[in-house]
Write a structure and sequence with these properties.
Blueprint: H1 3-27, H2 30-40, E1 59-62, E2 65-68, H3 75-78, H4 81-95, H5 103-130, H6 135-138, E3 142-147, E4 150-156, H7 173-186, E5 193-198, H8 211-228, E6 236-241, E7 260-265
């Protein structure tokens, strides 16, 4: 009959398991073996009638301090009060206050939240812009990216398609419409914003009026449109004119794209617990 085949299959399986076990024993470290042993060991109750099985095994705490049970050892010989204070101090310095996350941990957690929030905001901005009827043309005038300073939205000039009237601070109708669309999305976000105006290296034609004034006036014009569209004024953290000092294309100072308005959503600051103390 075929009964021997079943027995043989069981034998081969058992041999395979045996050789696998031998291989595991040969390749695992002593620490890994102890971990495996602890995993499969049944839970046990402390063998001491007081305290625990560790350093303080068999020790009861009473009003007059620690007293050994069944042994003449003194706790001070094993763990002095100074050692306890030292270990507690080390733990607090590495993790912040006891039970409180460190400042570094809070900042890292907030950075992750900011990254997720900015990714969502960028997607919302792009969707809102795509709904504009002239998005195909406007998309050439918009740059959206994020860095350590926050989420950056830049409205840039392109050859034959400027955002402001000539060398003035008067925004064109498409620029106003674009800023109003951006405001609808920004208004739903809690972040403070900064607005900066930039120019190319060409000086304005008006006498006594430099690129410093022009860039600042354009930034303020953008601020007024955003606030009129619903952005609360106290969310505007800074409005500045950078002149031609921070070109988008440093190798080509006269490039139209250097003329731009930069709107930045600032990262949120980590919220510290009310009882948090800096050390």
């Amino acid at each position: 009959g075929g009964a021997w085949k079943v027995a043989y299959a069981d034998f081969v399986t058992a041999m395979m398991a045996f050789f696998l076990l031998m291989w595991l024993i040969n390749t695992t470290s002593p620490e890994q073996k102890r971990g495996i042993a602890d995993y499969f060991a049944p839970a046990s109750v402390s063998r001491s009638n007081q305290g625990s099985d560790g350093l303080l095994g068999g020790t009861a705490f009473q009003e007059d301090g620690a007293r050994a049970s069944g042994s003449n050892r003194q706790i001070d010989e094993e763990l002095s009060a100074e050692n306890v204070r030292s270990k507690a101090s080390t733990s607090i310095s590495s993790e912040g206050q006891a039970g409180v996350p460190s400042e570094d941990a809070l900042e890292k957690a907030q950075a992750k939240r900011n990254a997720l929030a900015f990714a969502s905001a960028e997607a919302s901005l792009r969707q809102a812009l795509q709904d504009l009827p002239d998005y195909a043309e406007l998309s050439k005038n918009i740059i959206i990216d994020s860095d350590k300073d926050g989420l950056n939205i830049q409205l840039v000039d392109q050859e034959g398609r400027a955002m402001f009237q000539g060398s003035s601070s008067e925004p064109l109708p498409r620029t106003q419409h674009l800023l109003q669309t951006l405001a609808k999305v920004i208004d739903n976000l809690p972040n403070q914003i900064t607005i900066a105006g930039h120019t190319d290296s060409a000086a304005p034609s008006r006498a006594g009026y430099s690129n410093w004034e022009l860039s600042a006036d354009r930034a303020n014009a953008a601020r007024r449109i955003l606030e009129k569209a619903g952005i609360e004024s106290d969310r505007v953290f800074q409005v500045s004119g950078k002149g031609d000092r921070e070109p988008l294309y440093p190798d080509d100072a006269d490039m139209p794209a250097n003329r731009r308005i930069s709107i930045t959503l600032m990262p949120a600051k980590p919220v510290m617990p009310s009882d948090y103390e800096l050390h």
